[in-house]
Please model this.
Amino acid sequence: MKKILVVDDEFDILTTWRLVLEMEGYEVTTASNGRIALEAAAMRAPDLVITDWMMPHMDGVELIRHLAADEALGQVPVILMSAAAHAPELNHPDARFRRKPLSVDDLLALVNHLVGPA
Amino acid sequence: MRTGVQKEAINANIDDTLPIVSDNSRSKRAGPPSKNENFMSQDDNLPPDPLPQSPLNDGSVTTGVPGLDDILGGGFVEGGLYMIQGMAGAGKTILSSQIGFHRVAQGDNVLYITLIAESHTKLLSHLRSLSFYNADAISDRMLFVSGYHELMREGLAGFLALIASTIKASRPRFMVIDGFRSAREFSSTELELSQFIHELSAFVSAARCTTLILAPLSGNEPHPEHTLVDGLIELNRFNTGMRRAREIEVHKLRARDHLLGKHSFNITTDGLVTFPRLEASPANQHAPRHLDTRANFGFPEFDRMMGGGVVRGSTTTLVGPSGIGKTLLGLKFLQAGVESGERCVYFGLYESPERLIAKAASVNIDLGGAIEDGRLEINWHSAVELSIDELAAELFAVVNRTNASRLVVDGVDGFRQSANRSERFGLFMNALTQRLRDVGVTTIVTEELSLYGESGLPATLRASAMTENIVLMRYVEANSALYRMISIVKQRDGANDSSIRRLTIDSRGLHITEGFIGPTGILSGHPSLSPALSVSDPGPRT
Model:
């Protein structure tokens, strides 16, 4: 079963993506900021990280930088989602930016493209 | 996580002297820190700010919301903690985001923290249609974060630690906490909430981060939120008949001479636009200007009655029933102005510009040329739901824009109908005429009088009672016909003709002939003798 780590400070978004991805058969872990996400990823490496940008303690861009620098996690594909108008510069071999709001269909298509079905 | 967060917050440079996020924060030691003991003096120890800060000013944090800084007596105090309250749909979120984007434009970093409130994506998609929205600022100068998880897991102390660490990291100078109701619901006692607000207040003061907390409350109750914040601003709605009008009231504002009472506001595509009550504005609290030249009507017979015209800067009411010729006399006044090269404004509430021009042309008052070359501006407002202060704001906007020296406000009753609370009309008119005098404009207002008998309105509700000069126009019934009568009832400066004269209107224009001789009580509409016409009379109702 493919493991997906979803990171967002808004609990309603975490709930939504967890439900959507679990219904597709993925195993979902959630974290409410970059720091918690990093700890969770270190404990159990995910196959995909979906993260928000603006979060307390550690934002999504910093999380992605930490992931890229990590030997074990550096190759895990990442989706950065944000309401921000412009994509930030991402120093990561396999990261992409998506504007919020993202539809369920768009998210699932992207997830499927990146890691395949559950 | 909790320890980590708190440690980080405590270690922040700005927090060296702040016990408020430590475990001791619940102890008496934290005490009630004075709001004024801010930590500006500690600035020397701070690392250079990563982003430019707003330039030093008098400590006022402007809102950029039209009219609101006047209501607030200049703006918020830097580092103050303010509560914006109002029920759902009152406009709290729009107001606070509007101020947030304004602060970004002023060079500040802004932090928007939500608890259980509208999601960030929804919030931003709703704000996107408003003109102040700046997509480039999001994530760069304006951060949106949720404090929900910290509040859920660690309560108010955890939430405060989150605020502390986020302020440390992004150094905002302006912060909004949206959904404050959740914080209230998470506090087990009122005391805990009081303590949280007290600590928050001390922290944002130390960080010089002006903060708004948004809550769905109403009224000025003895809630801890209300007593401990530096300011309390309520957004509300006022019901009058089927109409609902938005109102803003500052219940409390420390260290600011704010305008007391309620003021109306609108929510437009530019966000909130507030209209400070004209009569509450300090602009009216000085002695009125005195001007001693006169403005004539280009109507020699009438100008003679007025002793040469009306004093510049004064306001004159033309009061009379429908159809008597008030508008035409007003247009004569404007025509005389444009002919001598003055800028003139017609501010009307009833007749559309096309009808007005046609009406003027039918009595030989040609205004077309003056409208074309900009000497005359016709500003017409259809009878929609506008507030009286909004009308006044538009009036002053057009007068200032055109730099007008002559103004006709046709149908001052429209102002009274927009007043919502009619008892303020007298003071409002006083303030209005004084402001108009201040900008150096000579004004004619027309006021409707009932066709027969006395007007039912008390003097305090009549514009004529508030103006320097009053011209009364009346129909007199004689020999089975109606005649127009005109008289100067009051003229503050200078002598005037006290006789009652006859006004006639025909295609050549307006004319004044000799008065009636003999009867009394003509202007009351109940003459005691049948009036005798003078020999030169041109016939009834021309």
Q: What stands out?
A: Chain A has a mean pLDDT of 93. Residues 3-112 of chain A form a domain with the Rossmann fold fold (CATH 3.40.50.2300). Chain A touches chain B through 22 residues (CB under 8 Å).
